[in-house]
Amino acid sequence: MNILTIGDVCGSIGCNYLLKVLPIIKKKENIDCTIVNGENSADGNGLTPLSAKSLFAAGADIITGGNHTLRRKEVYPLLDDNEFLLRPDNFSECSAGNGYTELDLGFAQLSVINLSGRVWMPDCDNPFVAADELIKRASDNGIKIIMIDFHGECTAEKRAFAEYVDGRASAVFGTHTHVQTADEKILKNGTGFITDLGMVGPLDSVLGVKAELSIAKIKDGAPVKFSLADGKCILNACIFNIDKNTGKTISVKRISLEE
After folding, report:
1. How many CA atoms lie within 13 A of 193 on its CB side?
2. Which SS3 state, helix, strand or coil, does residue 173 take?
3. Using CB atoms within 10 A of its CB, is residue 157 exposed (0-12), middle (13-18) or buried (19+)?
4. Active site residue 176
5. What is the reported pTM?
6. Residue 184, Cα to own-chain centre: how many angstroms?
């Protein structure tokens, strides 16, 4: 089966581009399930009920999150009510929502786990320990296809995590940096991996943000409020072809589209 994983969607401009191209990709690539990271899908950062609705309308089956998911309090009730809208599971127990879900496609079942890294990231619980618990939960429920969105800054942490769950998870795909890496592979025990999926958002930007604002902050240390760039968009994603009987990755295909 083909599982499409899509990098961080940036604001309404990213949502609108996803709505335009995702149906085409799903048809062309014979996609069975689509997982989209939506932690930055709202204009001004974070996730809102409206941006989540936009992602589901575009064709997302499951929306994963990251360190910005809980920034907008209006989304908290939706995180509690919608089992297919996730935030990193290793956030504090008092956080709204959770980072684990199961999806029955009829011909196959799969689970999706959302975790946050700890290197150069906000404080959270140990993702390795959380993964052990959640992978066991999926396995105890008879689920062989286990997909993990590991939201983190540090490439070494992402790779170390993937090696740790190699053979126990079907695929590990990194999010957060908004820069697609060219290291897609199948690890020795059958887990598909890519360090970072990339993003969906404005092409001529700094990680989606207007370049002049990023320059002012980084070069001059100015107290800048970021806003998204506009113009043509890019979509970064990865397709994991999974053996539904074994849960192992058969192939990994990286995608990068531009308007």
Report:
1. 24
2. strand
3. buried
4. no
5. 0.96
6. 15
